[in-house]
Amino acid sequence: MFTREDYVRYFSEIAHVERRMIYFTNDTIAQLSNERIINNIRRVAADEVKHYSFVLDLLAAELGFGKNSEQRLNARGNSLGPVDLTRLGSDPGSGFRGYCANLSPMGMCLESAKPFHPGEQYTFKFEPYDHREPAFERKGRVVWMREILDFYIGGIAFDA
């Protein structure tokens, strides 16, 4: 029999896969010029956002995820998009790209194919996929990081 934690882990991994699909489809759109193909891929991206929303609703409503130690699930918005990271004090060309999984005024949840470690400080340049949201640049530090499947996910606290 599955425990609540088994279900949360399973659906958290599904949410991760859905976010990766959102990142992939939107990154693909940015590289294309054929409007017909772009419009078709936008429909796929919209479906992935819908799937992701369903999984988040299931985690929050049915499994109570976010009611105990993970309070930030409800406090953060689902703002997705690429984030360019440059480690403070390093060469500007030495940065890497990650993706915002969710966002609040105080920080973000960041995913990346490259690891980043607690205590490291970065400049974060965020460009949301939803262009109604403003792009921004902030400095902050990594609070936590763990590996999920083939990606790294971590919490970022913005400087005040």
List the SSEs and their pairings.
Layout: H1 4-31, H2 35-62, H3 72-75, E1 81-87, E2 96-104, E3 107-112, E4 121-126, E5 136-148, E6 151-158
Antiparallel strand pairs: 1-2, 1-4, 2-3, 3-6, 4-5, 5-6
Helix pairs in contact: 1-2
Structure in words:
With 160 residues, the chain is of the alpha+beta class. It folds into two domains: 4-74; 77-158, Thrombin, subunit H, CATH 2.40.10. Helices cover 38% and strands 31% of the residues. It has three helices and six strands, in the order H-H-H-E-E-E-E-E-E. The chain has helices at 4-31, 35-62, 72-75, and strands at 81-87, 96-104, 107-112, 121-126, 136-148, 151-158. A hairpin with an 8-residue loop joins strand 1 (81-87) and strand 2. The protein is globular, with a radius of gyration of 16 Å.
Which keywords apply here?
single chain; 3 helices; Thrombin, subunit H; alpha+beta; 160 residues
User: What characteristic shape results from the CA principal axes?
Assistant: globular
| Biggest beta sheet attributes | 6 strands, antiparallel, barrel
The number of domains: 2
Figure out the total of helices.
3
Task: State the share of residues found in helices, binned by percent.
Answer: 25-40%
CATH class of the largest domain: Mainly Beta
* pLDDT < 50 stretches: 67-74
Question: Beta-strand level of the residues, as a percent range?
Answer: 25-35%
| Cα-to-Cα separation, first versus last residue | 46 Å
CATH 2nd-level architecture of the largest domain: Beta Barrel
**CATH topology-level fold name of the largest domain:** Thrombin, subunit H
What is the count of β-strands?
6
SSE topology string: HHHEEEEEE
Structural class: alpha+beta
